[in-house]
Amino acid sequence: MNARVDKLAIALGILAVTASCAVTSRSSNQTPQSPQVTAVSNKETLTIVKIDGSSTVHPITQAIAKKFQAQPRSNARVKVDISGTSGGFEKFCAGKTDISNASRPINQGEMKVCNENAVRYIELPVAFDAITVAVNPQNNWAKDITTAELKKIWQPDAEGKITRWNQVRSSFPNRPISLYGADVKSGTFDYFTEAIVGKSRASRKDYTASEDDNILVEAISKNPNALGYFGFAYYERNQNKLKALSVDNGAGAVLPSRENVEQAKYQPLSRPLFIYVNAQAAQAKSAVKNFVDFYLQAAPTTVSSVGYVPLTAEGYKLDQVHFTRGKVGTVFAGKAELNLTIAELLRKQAQF
Q: Counting beta carbons within 10 angstroms of the beta carbon of residue 218, is it exposed (0 to 12), middle (13 to 18) or buried (19 or more)?
């Protein structure tokens, strides 16, 4: 009797193991349908558009990138980083990015590196900026400043010497002056030094520098003795924390504003802003082409909404023509032009 029970138990055990193996085999041959697998599949088809460069242009590009990615069926992720105009061109000319934000035209050294690496670029002006000279709201003595006084403050010889407000103008109080400005990799640094000091990259070094204008804004907003400079959009968004100074180039003090830029009154601190597109990437990656097309359509309203001055409709149309035709190169011969107006920029673009 016991022998029969033992044989029956062994048989049932074998049957259970066999059934278990059959179920496991059937399960392993089925294609999983879980949401996790679908998500991985989407990541594999996602195209990343890589953008880096100017902190000044960043608000425009970032805002447009958010709108682009919000479109239905968008299969692209736009990654927008900040490393300054010069830092952005280093990556762009090495072929590491698809688009470079720039607050000045590409310079001759960068053109050479791009050429050596066979990186062809399409130059697209997207807005105008008014570099803003700002102080802390508690500053009740300075309402305007001349370009000569700005040079006195920022020229290399001022380092360690011009350290108090009354040294800038005798009617200013005998208080320390704390300086904040663009980092050496910033296009704003290049343009400001050339426009104010008279030579690009010529500047005192004893100041707080940053590639990120948000850092400069926060520092000035907390220091009653501060003076600094950065892109107009950052002042527009932080007017409750800052006070802009009118700039007098000899023709009277003028505040930075959209109207004064459009009327060519705010000189010499008005300048064009750009994106540079890798022409090969625009051909090889549909996401890059689609993003730039979307950018040029969205630019007029977006530029205004973030605090910069848009080009005219003709300007964006010229951009679209140049991009569609794959017009590579630059109209600036490797250097920035001071006192450039929107109308003069359009004439250059029309002849491109």
A: middle
Q: What percent of the chain has pLDDT over 70?
A: 87
Tokens 């029969």, residue? Answer: 4
Considering the entire predicted model, what is its pTM?
0.85
Contact 117, 94 (CB under 8 A): yes
Q: If 0-12 CB within 10 Å is exposed, 13-18 middle and 19+ buried, where does residue 12 land?
A: exposed
DSSP codes of every residue in 166-235: HHH-TTS-S-B-EEEEE-TT-HHHHHHIIIIISSTT---S-SEEES-HHHHHHHHHT-TTEEEEE-HHHH
| The predicted structure's pLDDT at residue 25 | 37
Question: b or e along 82-92 (b: 16 or more beta carbons within 10 Å of the residue's beta carbon)?
Answer: bbbbbbbbbbb
247 lies in some domain: yes
Please check whether residue 285 lies inside any domain of the structure.
yes
Rounded distance between C-alpha atoms, residue 190 and residue 85, angstroms:
9
Return the closest-CA partner of residue 310 out of 58, 117, 23, 60.
60
Q: Largest Cα–Cα distance in the chain? A: 119
Tokens representing residue 131 in the block: 């570099």
Residue 153 lies inside a defined structural domain of this protein: yes
CA 105 – CA 56 distance, rounded (Å): 13
In a shared domain, residues 123 and 145: no
Closest CA to 185 of 78, 119, 107: 107
Structure tokens at 234: 């950052």
Query: What one-letter code names the amino acid at 41?
Result: S
Q: How many domains does the chain have?
A: 2
In a domain, 228, yes or no: yes
Domain of 191, CATH number, reads 3.40.190.10
158 is in which domain, residue-wise?
A: 132-255
Q: Are 205 and 287 within one domain?
A: no
Among the candidates 202, 221, 255, a domain finishes at 255
Alpha helices in the chain (DSSP H): 2-28, 35-45, 58-69, 84-93, 108-116, 147-154, 165-168, 187-192, 213-221, 232-236, 258-262, 279-284, 286-306, 313-325, 342-351
Count how many residues are written for the chain.
352
Give the pLDDT confidence of 74-98 residue by residue, as tens digits.
Answer: 789 999 999 999 999 999 999 999 9
